[in-house]
Amino acid sequence: MADHRARGHVRDQPHRPDRRAVWLGTNNGLPWLPGWSNLPGLAPLLPLPVPRFTGILDAVPGTGGDVICGAGVGGTSLVYAGMLPQPSEEAFAAVFPSQVPYAELAAEHYPRALRRLRASPIPDDILAHERYTSTRTYLRYAQEAGASRTERLNLCYDWDVIRAELAGTAVPSASAGEYLWGVNSGAKLSVDRTYLAQAEATGRVTVKPLHVVTDVSAQPRGGYTVECQRIDEAGNTLERVRVLCDAVVFAAGATHTPELLVRARDIGTLPRLNEHVGTGFGTNGDRFIVLTGLPEPTLSRQGGPPGFLARDVPTPHGAVSMFHVPLPMPFETRSMVLLGMGKPNGFGTFHHNPLTGQVERHWPADGDQAAGLATKHLADRLARAAGGGIALEVGAVRQFTVHPVGGAVLGTACDLYGRLHGHPGLYCLDGSLIPGSTGLVNPALTIAAITERCLDTILTHDLRTVF
Ligand SMILES: Cc1cc2nc3c(=O)[nH]c(=O)nc-3n(C[C@H](O)[C@H](O)[C@H](O)COP(=O)(O)OP(=O)(O)OC[C@H]3O[C@@H](n4cnc5c(N)ncnc54)[C@H](O)[C@@H]3O)c2cc1C
């Protein structure tokens, strides 16, 4: 996919995303997200035409709800906020198969993933800066609303670069609430700077940017072919590339891996993939809320990344975790955007449409109804704790998620180590493994920890038989 490193995604005009923002779109990626257009203060982000380019934000519509993910070398970490909470054992057990041992992950794989992602919590001196007013205010509201487990998050940022932003010697980006279109100061430690850089440093890995995988096929005498389009930065196909391999690891994320797998199964290039491929898709129970009309200022440039998570808060509709998403507002709005994560009560599926050749994603309209009610309940409590303000649901018109997970789930489409059933040598190691939710937390750390655990086993047991 696009190699954003080659060009450096430096923008110095907040609120004005240009062609580097969006993966092969013709506008800045927001028009099909009515919810986003409703956010107070985000009017400058309303759809703007941009030339077609291999930018970093991939907006993927689906029936019943849309997905936002990242594109390019570094994946969704190019656009994510970099929050890395670990689920509680109770919340994890409520969604994962019982054979996936939380204790082992907590002892070994979560800490290892945090080390490799170079995560650390927001330091006190940065938190005390005026720019972080809304973060401190959110923490106070959450504690006063009775969220007893409000914790400082692990985040993957270089805090010295954020200090430079605040001192005026680096372009204000993370500290101005920007991450959705990349962090232009270089403060964010996206995975191209951590995991991928470590892999490339071994000399055994070659990253091929701007190669879009279109098909994977099993070969009659064993092994697989991977068909790619090598494209230019405007998305034009330069050539078709075919790679022969003994093993293939799907890591295109929970939007695109299930698409590739469902299509391959249904057109017969990977005919032995099972019926569970393309099922168990979830939104992680995400619901966005705008808390507005607050009695105190929240500032226009709200310093990020999000610093605190109010986790596993009981409500009459089930437990929910919540954080405040600092954003660049064009003026003082006395508002803060909140994201609640509850437990989904329904799951989506992927279907191959033989008429169009496309794979369509279907999400049940009531699939995260309980999560929505729990989020609204907690947000109303925050408004009461604030002494004024109302909680408005952002996705009321059309649902969307920034945390798509599932579609090739552990223990159904795959075994418990990411081996796809039916085709030895095929693996899935990304968010598609997750059963619709990571247990009331953001998914990236759990995806990394589960992948670490899968790879421990794959590298020990499959090296001689498959590779
Ligand atoms: C705005 C935003 C903020 C977020 N904030 C957080 C956060 O703070 N904390 C958190 O835990 N999670 C966050 N997330 C979610 C998190 O980033 C993802 O869950 C996680 O990165 C998914 O990892 P993955 O490995 O499954 O796939 P991805 O990181 O999505 O990687 C998939 C890769 O595959 C490539 N690809 C896709 N299709 C093809 C193809 N056909 N051929 C070749 N390559 C292909 C893509 O370009 C991409 O590089 C956020 C997401 C968004 C959108």
UniProtKB/TrEMBL annotation:
<keyword id="KW-0413">Isomerase</keyword>
<keyword id="KW-0753">Steroid metabolism</keyword>
<comment type="similarity">
    <text>Belongs to the GMC oxidoreductase family.</text>
</comment>
<comment type="pathway">
    <text>Steroid metabolism; cholesterol degradation.</text>
</comment>
<dbReference type="Pfam" id="PF00732">
    <property type="entry name" value="GMC_oxred_N"/>
</dbReference>
<keyword id="KW-0153">Cholesterol metabolism</keyword>
<dbReference type="Pfam" id="PF05199">
    <property type="entry name" value="GMC_oxred_C"/>
</dbReference>
<keyword id="KW-1207">Sterol metabolism</keyword>
<keyword id="KW-0285">Flavoprotein</keyword>
<keyword id="KW-0274">FAD</keyword>
<feature type="domain" description="Glucose-methanol-choline oxidoreductase C-terminal">
    <location>
        <begin position="400"/>
        <end position="450"/>
    </location>
</feature>
<dbReference type="InterPro" id="IPR036188">
    <property type="entry name" value="FAD/NAD-bd_sf"/>
</dbReference>
<dbReference type="InterPro" id="IPR000172">
    <property type="entry name" value="GMC_OxRdtase_N"/>
</dbReference>
<keyword id="KW-0443">Lipid metabolism</keyword>
<keyword id="KW-0560">Oxidoreductase</keyword>
<feature type="domain" description="Glucose-methanol-choline oxidoreductase N-terminal">
    <location>
        <begin position="68"/>
        <end position="263"/>
    </location>
</feature>
<dbReference type="InterPro" id="IPR052542">
    <property type="entry name" value="Cholesterol_Oxidase"/>
</dbReference>
<protein>
    <recommendedName>
        <fullName>Cholesterol oxidase</fullName>
        <ecNumber>1.1.3.6</ecNumber>
        <ecNumber>5.3.3.1</ecNumber>
    </recommendedName>
</protein>
<dbReference type="InterPro" id="IPR007867">
    <property type="entry name" value="GMC_OxRtase_C"/>
</dbReference>
